[in-house]
Write a structure and sequence with these properties.
It is built from six helices and seven strands; from the N terminus they run E-E-E-H-H-E-H-E-H-H-H-E-E. It is α/β, with parallel strands linked by helices. It has a five-stranded mixed β-sheet, sandwiched between helices. It has a two-stranded parallel sheet with strand order 6-7.
Length: 211
């Protein structure tokens, strides 16, 4: 059965949505179906202006390639977040490590959200391949998905969309519940639980995971 999804990704100045700030948002709205079918509908991408006096730490610039001056003239976080949520509309939201990305978006809005309709490809990877590293880069490599320019929002979105199409079919064939499922584990503790999420606790893996 085909569905409409919006895959999104953010880049930020750090890992804490209470103290760090979004620097870039990207999203692709697409129709996804059996056999890895993907029909792209539209794209959204914007840099996000930082609050006055805030700069991107050098280690983040090294990781993402985004510099403080790149954000000059960009919309502020509130406008950018509301724009991407409007772009997503009623479609299912998808992200790799969904709780991380959505915690920043909801934090900017300053309000909670009703029960959502989402899928987390990191959780899907853990459920489908429990003994493998579920981080985006190794998961994409495992499935032959090109991930060029990792840690730039649109590059990560393009790869995550392809990954979702693959993992969705594998999960459904195996009877694995993945919609609204997030994973909590010792190596990657869950720091934010989206409204309505189903939390699955999995045993520690030996392989250390990154983003």
């Amino acid at each position: 059965m085909n569905e409409i999804v919006t895959v999104f990704d953010i880049e930020s100045t750090g890992l804490d949505p209470l103290t760090d700030h979004i620097t870039e948002i990207a999203a692709i709205r697409a129709e996804v179906g059996p056999g890895g079918y993907i029909r792209e509908i539209g794209r959204f991408q914007t840099y996000v202006a930082l609050p006055p006096g805030v700069e991107i730490p050098p280690k983040i610039t090294e990781l993402t390639g985004i510099k403080t001056e790149d954000l000059r003239g960009a919309p502020d976080a509130y406008c950018a977040v509301n724009a991407v949520l409007a772009f997503a509309g009623w479609s299912r939201r998808v992200a790799h490590n969904y709780p991380f990305d959505i915690s920043f978006l909801f934090g900017v809005r300053g309000i909670g959200e009703d029960e959502e309709d989402f899928a987390c490809t990191r959780a899907m990877s853990r459920l489908v391949d429990p003994d493998e590293n579920a981080s985006l880069a190794p998961t994409c490599e495992r499935y032959g998905i090109a991930l060029n320019g990792h840690h730039r929002a649109m590059n990560d979105v393009e790869a995550t969309l392809q990954l979702y199409a693959i993992l969705r079919e594998k999960a459904e064939v195996s009877g694995i519940t993945y919609r609204n499922v997030v994973v909590d584990s010792a190596e990657r503790p869950l720091t934010y639980t989206p409204p309505g999420a189903i939390v699955r606790t999995l045993e520690r893996k030996q392989t250390k995971e990154v983003a």
